[in-house]
Amino acid sequence: MVDRKLFSIAAVVLFSVAGYMAFINAAGPVQRDGSLFIFMANNIYAGQPPYWASFDTKNPFVEYYWSLVYVPLAGWLGVVSASRVAEGIYLALTGLVVFYSLLFYYRKFLMPQQEQSQRLQLCSMFRPTLFAMLLSVSVVYLLSNWRVVDNGFNISIYQGLLEALALLLAVMLIYRRSLPLSLLFGGIVFFAWWTKQTSLLSIFPPLLVSLFWAYKSGCFRQYLCASAIALVTFLSLVALFVLVLWQNETLAYYQRGTHGFHLSTLADNMKSASLYLMGLLSSSWAFPKNTALWVSALFVIVVVAVSRDVALCKRRGDQSIDTVFLKVFLASWLFGAILQATIPLNFYPHYYLSAWVPAVLNVGVHLLDAKWVRDDLRGINAAIALLLFFALFHYYEERPLLEQMRSSAPIYQRVEKLSEIIPPESTVFVWGGLAHFHILNNKSSDYAQNMWWPYIRESMSDAERDEEISAHLKGNPPDYFIEFYESYR
After folding, report:
1. How far apart are CA 440 and CA 38, in angstroms?
2. DSSP states along 312-370
3. Is residue 2 within 8 Å of residue 121, measured between CB atoms?
């Protein structure tokens, strides 16, 4: 009963914070990548298969999720604002997973045995609960702050929730194995991959740690069997996704946008990696703008702390082995999150956003594990609460700046003029890397591959591209042809 009350209170707080942040961010402009994701989501909402009208390098889970939220909200709010609502809900759920994980760790490993044997009272859990809630609010704030995430709609901020759920299930399988749990584990891993392919790189290191953890716990064979069932589940769902793409005649578009593009750019990225890295290092170090530097610094600190715990565990025996394995498990997840962002060698800052969830969980676990922190949680909670209050209160001052950015953005000015000229029922073909005309008018695509931005230039020759466009437009010319020029080189 108390658990439900605590969870309900946390949910109210987190959804309130996420809604507040989304309300402020809604005043700002939609950036290029966000416009393309919303474009695909709106096309799915209109009944079109993913990748038919648009080019994307990522898997389509987020777009499918948004399209579901469009069902009750798009007609009322429009697809852009409905996407803001969907993002706020998702980030609040991410915060809830962080809250639950920290509270679970405290209860299982740190709560005095005497308190565990009693009916949990709210007063005995107040300070650690408040600590977990404040850190979960921090996650929502970081992943909603436009100065960190470039005003939202970054797929990377969606990775943490499903990765956390997958790894939570992996740990559960060490202690309790069942067929439904194994199937669920495989399904969640699929959804993590379906969000962004590199999530597999994020969770791979901790899953390796879990194998060794199961071996030391004496259940390696059973855990391996459960993992095999999960793997078969994951591969079956991947095969089903590929089959659906093939049936919709969009498999070639999917391959062109994902594997084709990444393979075509890897060589250039390797040549320019040092320049990209220097650009990242020379950007602002102000917290929390440069996510890559901050999460990397936290990872170094975590490695030092975990190394100390491993040494102490060896010295005093196996009495705290589960705690140490959990810390190694979390540290390896943070390593995987940094690795998946670094491997493309282009050092895009937003790729590192997915590392905030494992970073905050690592910090929270290590702080709770320190006796001096537990003894002074009142002061630490007060300090964190004060910082968050300050940050959230002053975030409202960002709204006029976001409104000014939106009104002065050239693409918004152009779309406003075009919308006055082009009747809503007209067919439109867009040549360019901005989908703002469609999303700001809540318009689905009239044509296949109705956008040609720089990634397609890397994946196709000019002759192939011209031939395909001619085939799409033959016998069905658009009423209007729009070119949005952007220089990407």
Report:
1. 10
2. HHHHH-STTHHHHHHHHHHHHHHHHHHHHHHTTSS--GGGGGGGHHHHHHHHHHHHHHS
3. yes
Q: Tokens 């405290």 identify what position? A: 106
How many whole angstroms separate alpha carbon 381 and alpha carbon 357?
A: 19
pLDDT tens profile 373-410? 888 888 999 999 999 999 999 999 999 999 999 999 88
Closest to 350 in 3D by CA, of 164, 488, 97, 152: 152
CA–CA dist 107, 97 (Å, integer): 15
Burial class (CB in 10 A: 0-12, 13-18, 19+), 312: exposed
Report the phi/psi class of residue 51: left, alpha or beta, with left for phi > 0 and alpha for psi in -120 to 50: left
453 contact partners, CB below 8 Å, separation of at least 6: 36, 55, 432, 433, 486, 488
The span from the CA of 25 to the CA of 145, in Å, is: 8
Binning pLDDT at 50, 70 and 90, where does residue 470 land? confident
In angstroms, rounded to a whole number, what is the distance separating the alpha carbons of residues 453 and 353? 24
The C-alpha atoms of residue 292 and residue 427 are separated, in whole angstroms, by: 43
User: From the DSSP assignment, how many helices (H) and strands (E) are in the chain?
Assistant: 23, 2
CB 185 within 8 A of CB 170: yes
Tell me, yes or no, if the pTM score tops 0.85.
yes
What is 131-174 written as a DSSP string? HHHHHHHHHHHHHH-HHHHTSS--GGGGHHHHHHHHHHHHHHHH
Eight-class DSSP state of 48? P
% residues pLDDT > 70 (the chain): 87
How far is the C-alpha of 476 from the C-alpha of 107, rounded, in Å?
64
Q: Is 428 helix (H, G, I), strand (E, B) or coil?
A: strand
Average pLDDT in the 182-206 region?
97
User: Closest Cα partner for 111 from 135, 136, 134, 128?
Assistant: 128
H or E element at residue 437: helix 436-440
What is the Cα–Cα distance from 9 to 280, expressed in whole angstroms?
39
Q: Return the structure tokens found at 214.
A: 């199961």
Question: Which tokens hold the place of 412?
Answer: 């918004």
47 pLDDT more than 90: yes
> 282 is written with which tokens?
């020379």
- For the cut 60, the answer to whether the pLDDT of residue 178 exceeds it is yes
CA dihedral over 185, 188, 193, 198, signed as positive or negative: negative
The span from the CA of 320 to the CA of 311, in Å, is 12
Q: Which of these, 37, 466, 58, lies nearest to 259 by C-alpha position?
A: 58
Angle separating helix axes 2-25 and 79-105, nearest 10 degrees: 140
